[in-house]
Structures are given as C-alpha cells and as structure tokens.
Design a protein that fits this description.
InterPro entries: NAD(P)-bd_dom_sf, SDR_fam. By secondary structure, this protein is mainly α. The chain has a single domain, classed as NAD(P)-binding Rossmann-like Domain (Rossmann fold, 3-Layer(aba) Sandwich), CATH 3.40.50. It has helices spanning 11-42, 58-77, 103-110, 122-133, 151-154, 160-167; strands spanning 45-49, 82-88, 91-92, 120-121, 144-147. The chain has a 3-stranded parallel β-sheet, sandwiched between helices. A two-stranded parallel ribbon has the order 3-4. α1 runs parallel beside α2. It is globular. Mean pLDDT is 85; it is low at 1-9.
C-alpha cells in the first residue's frame, strides 16, 4: 500500500522546483492565454518549447508543459488554433557555456549518446519549429516533436561504437 508522507527535506529542491515551474510552465500558460485572441483571428499556431529531459524539477516542468500542450490542442482546436511542442535533447548552444566547458567539447563528448552520431544544433530545432508552423502540417496538433537524434528511442547512454561493434 503506497503511503505519502508530507514534508520538505531539501528546501533547495523546493526553491528550484518553484522557480523552474514559474519559468518553464507558467510562462507557457501565460503566453498562450495572452495570444489566444489574436491567434483565433489569424488561425495561428502555438509552439511550446519543451525538452527531452528526465531530470527533476526541470523534467517535471517540461512534462507538465507537454500535457498543457495536449490540453490546449483540444481546447483551442475548434478556434482554428493548433498547439504543439518541440522537445529537443542536447543542443549545441551558448547556453552550454554556463557549464564552464566549451559547448563543442560537450557536443563531441556526447556524440556517441545519439544514434545519428552527433548532438543537435540550433538549426535542427529551428527546422522543427518551421515545419510545425507551416500550412503543410495543418493536421498536426497536440503532438510533441522530439528533436533528439534518436536519443530517447535508443535509451539513455546509447553508444554508437558499441552498437556498430555488435552489428558486425
């Protein structure tokens, strides 16, 4: 029988949780509701940036963003508004500089985690956004487009060298 005890053992986790939810989830909610009136007139598209991350609390906020995306696709579809999310994995950006390591070094070190043999680049995410915004995707709504080079499909820690050796 599962039992849930209430209590906070790590206040820094709770602080990170609250901040992450405010930044990553609340902003998607607020922006959606601010834009609905205009998008209803223009039959626009909402694309939420989410993630393929599994870490807490960031992954929790992104999972909530994905569910919000699905709910809004249902709620706003009748108003001619499509709602989708783009869920990138590790993307080589300047944001990676905050780790203190050159983004190119991180990308090279992680390349074997992706079946395509490389980390993503900003253009990969931009192409997903362009596709979901285009008239050609007018029947796509409520979906989460992974931009992860097959990382999730292959499983965490995928190693292309090992996979290549096993296939011979």
């Amino acid at each position: 029988m599962p039992v849930k005890f209430v209590g906070i053992t790590n206040p820094s986790f709770m602080e990170a949780y609250r901040l992450t939810m405010r930044v990553d989830l609340d902003m998607a909610v607020f922006m959606t509701y601010l834009c609905v009136g205009h998008l209803e007139k223009t039959r626009g598209v909402i694309i939420n940036m989410s993630s393929a991350s599994l870490s807490a609390p960031y992954g929790m906020a992104r999972t909530a963003t994905d569910m919000f995306t699905r709910c809004m696709a249902v709620e706003l579809g009748g108003k001619g508004i499509r709602v989708n999310s783009v869920n990138p994995s590790v993307i080589e950006t300047d944001f990676l500089k905050s780790t203190g390591v050159d983004p190119k070094v991180i990308a090279k070190g992680m390349a074997n985690k992706f079946p395509v043999g490389r980390c993503g680049v900003v253009e990969d995410v931009a192409q997903a956004v362009l596709f979901l915004s285009a008239p050609e995707s007018s029947f796509i709504t409520g979906t989460h487009m992974l931009v992860d080079g097959g990382h999730i499909a292959a499983g965490i820690g995928y190693n292309t060298a090992k996979a290549s050796a096993n296939s011979k």
